[in-house]
Design brief:
By secondary structure, the chain is of the alpha+beta class. It has 2 domains: 112 residues, Aminopeptidase (3-Layer(aba) Sandwich); 125 residues, Aminopeptidase (3-Layer(aba) Sandwich), CATH 3.40.630. It is elongated. It starts with a strand and ends with a helix.
């Protein structure tokens, strides 16, 4: 906790008892969101499985007894190069205008652990110089609006819905199986592509893109973008039966075999820390818990 007694300012972890006050604050900072939206968001954050000893919600900025700022932090434990690591999604930063001078203290407190990889998935354009000055590096340059049903067909590959009560053998690791099960509970579509003895898992989430005018499926998880490129046609035609035509996915550039338009500079992502996030991995992030 940061406690500046001379100014009456302190920074501390958000607790459940703070939520009502913070919702009032967030309604000022994010005027297009409703009280019901924020209550659902905090409920999802409170119910999720989170790494122990890390903040469940994030940090708040106080002046005396008044809440004047906050940043929501979403921590998750992953595996990188065979070792466990901690990632943290920075989300929903807001400080009252009178206290913006203390915003840097809030960010410093939120990102001080050198063992954690912090990432920002939805930076506003005007904040990019500040983010880069804080040592964050860009790890994704754009995204694709794809129509995978038009992509080429791969022979001898079958697409099926992932079943939470089915054992898929060693071709699907325990960690991946648990990942798929948890995200099905969060409303994601989980698919398995079989090709011989190989199994490739994929997660998608319904979203409305471009001012909520275009219904799309966001690619939430795959092992490698090349796997999606390889099976795009099969996956697109399987989900076309559900009435889904357009997909949205992060990518470093156009993907061979994926029909669509690459939007350079759209959906920029930044990180700072020892383990660069996997491009296209939205699991356990604001996209899942906040619908951001």
């Amino acid at each position: 906790m940061i406690d500046n007694r001379a100014s009456g300012i302190r920074i501390r972890q958000i607790e459940s008892a703070d939520i009502d006050d913070l919702i009032a604050l967030l309604l000022k900072g994010f005027r297009k969101r409703t009280e019901g939206y924020w209550r659902r968001a905090f409920r999802h954050l409170s119910e999720r499985k989170a790494p122990p000893s890390y903040p469940r919600f994030g940090y708040l900025l106080e002046h005396g007894e008044k809440k004047v700022g906050l940043i929501i932090l979403i921590y998750s434990e992953r595996t990188a190069d065979g070792e466990p690591c901690i990632l943290c999604n920075l989300s929903c930063w807001y400080v009252e205008p009178m206290y913006r001078a203390y915003g840097g203290l809030l960010i410093s407190k939120a990102t001080r652990d050198r063992n954690v990889t912090y990432f920002n998935m939805s930076p506003s354009a005007h904040t990019l110089p500040t983010i880069e000055a804080q040592g964050f590096k860009r790890y994704c340059e754009g995204e694709i609006i794809a129509v995978p049903a038009l992509s080429r067909r791969v022979s001898r590959a079958n697409v099926e819905e992932f079943k939470t009560d089915c054992y898929y053998g060693p071709a699907l690791s325990k960690e991946e199986r648990e990942l798929l099960i948890s995200h099905v509970a969060y409303g994601c579509i989980a698919l398995i592509v079989r090709r011989g003895d190989k199994i490739s898992p994929f997660l998608f989430l319904h979203r409305r893109s471009f001012r909520r005018l275009l219904p799309t499926l966001q690619l939430i998880y795959c092992r490698d973008l090349q796997e999606f490129s390889e099976y795009a046609g099969r996956i697109g035609r399987a989900l076309l039966r559900r009435g889904v035509l357009f997909f949205r996915l992060d990518a470093p550039g156009p993907l061979p075999g994926v029909s669509g338009i690459y939007l350079a500079g759209h959906g920029l992502r930044y990180f700072r820390g020892p383990h660069p996030p996997h491009i296209g991995d939205f699991t356990f992030t604001e996209t899942i818990f906040l619908g951001w």
